[in-house]
Design goal:
The complex is a heterodimer of chains A (about 325) and B (about 250).
Chain A: E1 2-5, E2 8-9, E3 12-13, H1 15-31, E4 35-40, H2 48-53, E5 58-62, H3 72-86, E6 90-94, H4 97-110, E7 114-122, E8 127-133, E9 138-144, E10 149-153, E11 169-173, E12 187-188, E13 204-208, H5 219-227, E14 231-234, H6 236-240, E15 261-265, H7 271-277, E16 282-287, E17 300-303, H8 306-322
Parallel strand pairs in A: 1-4, 1-6, 4-5, 5-11, 6-10, 7-10, 13-14, 13-15, 15-16, 16-17
Antiparallel strand pairs in A: 2-3, 7-8, 8-9
Helix pairs in contact in A: 3-4, 5-8
Chain B: E1 2-6, E2 10-12, E3 32-34, H1 37-53, E4 56-63, H2 68-76, E5 81-86, H3 94-107, E6 114-118, H4 129-137, E7 141-145, E8 147-150, E9 154-161, E10 164-171, E11 174-178, H5 190-198, E12 201-204, E13 213-219, E14 229-233, H6 238-247
Parallel strand pairs in B: 1-4, 1-6, 4-5, 5-12, 6-11, 7-11
Antiparallel strand pairs in B: 2-3, 8-9, 9-10
Classes of the chains: A alpha/beta (about 325), B alpha/beta (about 250).
The structure holds flavin-adenine dinucleotide and adenosine monophosphate.
C-alpha cells in the first residue's frame, strides 16, 4: 500500500499534497498496490471527496480532541499508526515545510531513514531515489534502506491530476498519542496585512545584488518594478548588508520564484542565487562584467553600470507606455 | 542559559559544481568552505541570547579535522567553546549524524537549555537532523523559525507560513531549527579572531555506522547551457531592452 500524507489548513486542501497523491497513484499502479491517504484533524474529512477523485481508495482521518491546529509530532504519530496497521510500503508527502517536518518526525519515531526532496522514487529493497541537493543545484541518487520507504517530493515534480475510480472510503480513527505529542502545536498569529504581490507569485521581478551599491541604489529598481507591475527581489549580499529585508531574498535560503521576467541587476549568479530563479521564463541581466556566471543562465544581457543603465530603461519604458 | 549550535562545513562555489571521479563528492580542492546561512543566523542568535541572559555558546560540528576552521570562525563572532566530532571525511547520513550529535550532548557537562540548528543543511538538505536529535533527547522541537524569544524556562518561536505566521510556545530545554533572515549576523572583529584562537575545542571520534540513506551518485543537473544575447553596452541598450519587454508582454 502507498500512503500519502495530505496536508490541509482547517479543511482547505494543500495543492502540493495533491501532486504527491498523483505521484503516489502512479507508484501504486506500477506496483499493483492500493493508494491510501491520511488527513489529520476531524475538519480534514472535508477534503476526502477531492482525494477520492484523485484515486485514493481509503482516506484515513485522524480525529482527536487536541488536534484542531497543526501539531507535527501528533501528525507523525497518527501516520506511524496507519502505516503499521495497513502495512504501507511507501509513505509519501509533499516536500513543503510541513511535509518535510512530519516525515522527519515519522522517521525519528520509527527509526527509519527519510529521503526528502525527491524527484523520483523506485520502490524495492533498497528503494532507489533521486533527490535534490543544494536547493536543486545538484542531484543525488541514493539507496533508501528499510520499509516503509519514507519520502517527500519536490514541489511541481508532477502536475496534480484527477484519476482512478472515484469516491473513496472514509475511515475515521482516534490516534493513540503519547505524552508530549501535543506539546508543540501551532497558534496562528493575527493575520498581517500584506501589501502588493508576493515575491513567490510575482510575474515580474526586478532583482538587485551587490552591484546596486547601497540601499538608496534600489530606487530605480523600485521605479522600474512599479512601471512593469512587478516587485523587488535581491541577493543575499543585499540582505546581509541590511539594504533590503530577507523577505525579498531570492535563492537557496531565500524564496524560490518563477516569474515571466526576472531582471538581475548587479548579481553575479552564484549557484545558490540561481537555485531560486532558474525557473524564470525570461531573464535579463545588467552587469558590468561580461564574464559574470549569470550570463550562462540568462536570455539577454546589457553590459554596463546599473545606476546608468536603469534610468535609461525607465525613460524608454515610460515613452513606450505613453505610447 | 547555555546554548548549543550545530553547524556543518560545506564547500562554497559560486560557479557550477564539479563532481569527483568516483561520482560521490564535489571537487573541492580549489574551493573555500563555509556553513549554511541558516546556521550563521543560528550562531548569531545564540550569541545575542547569551549577551542578554548570560551563559555560554557552544558550537558543534561533525566533519573532517579541517572543520575546526568553521568552529573558529564562529568563535570569532562570540561562541565560547567547540565540540568537533571528527570523521575521515566520508559523509554521515542524517540518522548517524543525529545519533552522534545526541550522544555528544548527553555526555557533555552542560545540559544545554537550547539547541539551535539550521532548518536544512546547505549541501545534503535532509530537513531532519534537528528533529531526530530532539527525539533522541526527548525534547520539544519547533522547525523553520524566524523569531525567537526566550524567558527563564520557556521560549516562543515564530514561524512564517503562507497566510502570515504561526507561534509556538514550548518549555525549555528545547531544540529549534532556524531560517536565514532570523537576524543579520555580525562580522567577526580582529580581537574576536584573536580570542577565537585560544578557545577550547573538545574532540570525539565515534565509528561511522552503515548509512541507511546511502548516496550512490552525485550529478550536476542537465540544464540547457544558455548564453545571454548581449543587447548592448550601457544606456544605449535601453531601447532594445524595452523592445524585449514588449515582446514578452510585460509593458
Ligand atoms: C548555503 C548557501 C546558501 C545561499 N543562499 C543564497 C540565497 O538564497 N540567495 C543569494 O542571493 N545568495 C545566497 N548565497 C550566497 C551566494 O553564494 C553569493 O554569495 C551571493 O548570491 C552573491 O550575491 P551578489 O551576486 O549580489 O554579489 P557578488 O557575487 O559580489 O556579485 C556582484 C555582481 O555585481 C556586478 N557589479 C558590480 N558593480 C556593478 C555595477 N555598478 N553595475 C552592474 N553590475 C555591477 C559584478 O560584476 C558582480 O557580477 C548562499 C550561500 C550559501 C553558501
Ligand atoms: N555534520 C553535521 N554537523 C553538525 N550539524 C549538522 C551536521 N549535519 C546536519 N547538521 C545540523 O542539522 C541541520 C539540518 O541538517 P539536514 O537534516 O542535513 O538538512 C543543519 O543545518 C545543522 O544545523
Amino acid at each position: 500500500m502507498v500512503l500519502v500524507l495530505v496536508d490541509h489548513d482547517h479543511g482547505v486542501l494543500d495543492e502540493l499534497s495533491l501532486q504527491a497523491v498523483t505521484y503516489g497513484r502512479e507508484l501504486a499502479a506500477a506496483t499493483g498496490e492500493q493508494l491510501d491517504a491520511l488527513v489529520v484533524g476531524a475538519d480534514g474529512s472535508g477534503v476526502a471527496g477531492a482525494l477520492g477523485e484523485h484515486g485514493v481508495a481509503t482516506v484515513h482521518v485522524a480525529a482527536h480532541d487536541g488536534l484542531t491546529d497543526y501539531a507535527p509530532v501528533a501528525a507523525a504519530r497518527a501516520a506511524s499508526e496507519v502505516a503499521a496497521r495497513t502495512g504501507a510500503s511507501v509513505v509519501l508527502a509533499a516536500g513543503t515545510p510541513r511535509g518535510n517536518e512530519v516525515m522527519a518526525h515519522l522517521g525519528a519515531i520509527t527509526d527509519l531513514p527519510v529521503a526528502a526532496d525527491c524527484v523520483s522514487v523506485a520502490p524495492g529493497s533498497p528503494t532507489q531515489v533521486v533527490r535534490a541537493r543544494w536547493g536543486g543545484s545538484l542531484i543525488e541518487e541514493a539507496n533508501l534502506h528499510g520499509s516503509p520507504a519514507l519520502v517527500t517530493l519536490v514541489p511541481h515534480t508532477v502536475a496534480a491530476e484527477p484519476g482512478g475510480s472515484g469516491a473513496g472510503d472514509l475511515a475515521q480513527f482516534t490516534p493513540e498519542l503519547a505524552d508530549g505529542d501535543l506539546l508543540v502545536i501551532a497558534r496562528p498569529a493575527a493575520a498581517e496585512e500584506k501589501a502588493g504581490v508576493s515575491l513567490a507569485d510575482a510575474k515580474v521581478i526586478v532583482s538587485g545584488g551587490r552591484g546596486v551599491g547601497s540601499a538608496e541604489g534600489f530606487a530605480p529598481l523600485e521605479e522600474l518594478a512599479e512601471l512593469l507591475g512587478g516587485t523587488i527581489g535581491c541577493s543575499r549580499v543585499v540582505t546581509g548588508n541590511g539594504w533590503r529585508p530577507h523577505t525579498e531574498q531570492v535563492g537557496q535560503t531565500g524564496t524560490k520564484v518563477a516569474p515571466d521576467l526576472y531582471i538581475a541587476c548587479g548579481i553575479s549568479g552564484a549557484t545558490q542565487h540561481i537555485a531560486g530563479c532558474r525557473n524564470a521564463k525570461t531573464m535579463i541581466v545588467i552587469n558590468t562584467d561580461p564574464e559574470a556566471a549569470i550570463m550562462g543562465y540568462a536570455d539577454y544581457a546589457v553590459i554596463g553600470d546599473v545606476s546608468k543603465v536603469l534610468p535609461a530603461i525607465i525613460e524608454e519604458a515610460k515613452k513606450a507606455k505613453a505610447g | 542559559m547555555d546554548v548549543l549550535v550545530c553547524i556543518k562545513r560545506v564547500p562554497l562555489s559560486g560557479g557550477k559544481f564539479t563532481i569527483t571521479g568516483d561520482g560521490l563528492d564535489i571537487e573541492s580542492a580549489k574551493l573555500g568552505f563555509t556553513i549554511s546561512p541558516h546556521e550563521e543566523v543560528a550562531v548569531e542568535e545564540a550569541v545575542r541570547i547569551v549577551e542578554q541572559h548570560g551563559g555560554s555558546v557552544t558550537v558543534l560540528t561533525l566533519g573532517p579535522a579541517d572543520a575546526e576552521e568553521q568552529i573558529r570562525e564562529q568563535m570569532a563572532i562570540g561562541a565560547d567553546r567547540g565540540i568537533l566530532i571528527e570523521t575521515n571525511g566520508a559523509e554521515w547520513d542524517p540518522q548517524a549524524t543525529a545519533s552522534a550529535i545526541a550522544d555528544a550532548i548527553n555526555e557533555d557537562e552542560s545540559d544545554f537549555d537550547l539547541v539551535i540548528m539550521g532548518n536544512e543543511s546547505a549541501d545534503a538538505s535532509g530537513y531532519q537532523v534537528g528533529i531526530r536529535v530532539a527525539h533522541k533527547l526527548g525534547r520539544p522541537i519547533v522547525t523553520g523559525v524566524k523569531g525567537i524569544t526566550v524567558a527563564a524556562d520557556r521560549a516562543t518561536f515564530e514561524r512564517p507560513v503562507k497566510a502570515g505566521r504561526e507561534l509556538y510556545e514550548v518549555p525549555l530545554p528545547a531544540v529549534v531549527t532556524v531560517l536565514d533572515g532570523l537576524n543579520i549576523p555580525r562580522y567577526p572583529s580582529v580581537p574576536g579572531r584573536i580570542r577565537a584562537k585560544k578557545k577550547p575545542i573538545e574532540r570525539r571520534s565515534p565509528e561511522r555506522p552503515e548509512p541507511k540513506l546511502e548516496k550512490t551518485r552525485l550529478e550536476v543537473p542537465q540544464t540547457e547551457a544558455k548564453q545571454a544575447q548581449v543587447l548592448g553596452n550601457g544606456p544605449e541598450a535601453a531601447a532594445a531592452v524595452v523592445e524585449i519587454f514588449k515582446q514578452i508582454g510585460v509593458i
